């Protein structure tokens, strides 16, 4: 294996093992920042040694053992936490005496709880949403600071500062490295799911930049969602979110043309939709419903996505059911954006005039001030009614509001299609 191949292997191992490694270290040290630092130290040692010695048979166990040695050295030098020092030394010695298979079993046994604790710690409500996203991608997504910065089109220094402040805030508040229990779980789980879906949405429809999509972010969010579903198999909304992301991600290859220009849902070539992802999404939705979560916010959104996925052509779409599902969603998770989406569905099911009457009630909604999709929807409904002179300025307004170059170009094309000057 060449040095280049080894470095590629190390990068792949880190993506797979980093969350497990940090989670295991954080369980022992009760310090997420220190756990990440020691995990990074182990990675540096791997980069130094593996090109000469080769990638070990069990790279995850190798990294964990190396990181534990570093932890012991750190504790010895500081002359603190003597009991923890002895505990770590005992664990290390025990692992060294076992066969590789036994080491794997020892590492894998508590890993579910460890990862679950890490997810809830990274998404702690003490942190801002932006900090939760950055920390989650760093600790659980295995992304570097530079990768996170590029994904969100922000300076690397900004992301680095958010991550440092997040870890410092957790340490200062002495946040417990645990999964909340009882009534606290629902609120904290909602925050975790919200962070994962925010990451997915930024990949699915980028808020700014030159590309309409950032598929790598969708993949990271999907992976996090699948991990969480495996760790919390009895939580219906976890499966509802996974179902929603699987089905939405199935359209990835049909959402842009060869020039990177957006293709709207009704114009997409459905033969390009990924049937495997659709099957996975429908199965996750069914699982959420069996757990009694059919009316959960994510499950309802997944059911809406499923209506599109089941329609072989745009004309086959059951818009009346979609409108009904949005009405149900508005009951359990009311928001102006949900109402705007309901307007679209009502406009498709019962005619553009019916949809426009809903949109016009949202014009003065403070939460939608500056939201570019409000004039997009209004312009589309006006265009379908033949009121092109009114539709044109709506698309122009949407173009002025969006920060995404591809979306701006699309809106300007739609404005020109309305004719006039």
From TrEMBL:
Residues 188-288 form the DUF6596 domain. Residues 119-170 form the RNA polymerase sigma factor 70 region 4 type domain. It comes from the Bacteria. InterPro entries: DUF6596 (IPR046531), RNA_pol_sigma-70_dom (IPR014284), RNA_pol_sigma70_r2 (IPR007627), RNA_pol_sigma70_r4_t2 (IPR013249), RNA_pol_sigma_r2 (IPR013325), RNA_pol_sigma_r3/r4-like (IPR013324), WH-like_DNA-bd_sf (IPR036388). Residues 21-79 form the RNA polymerase sigma-70 region domain. NCBIfam families: sigma70-ECF. This is RNA polymerase sigma factor.
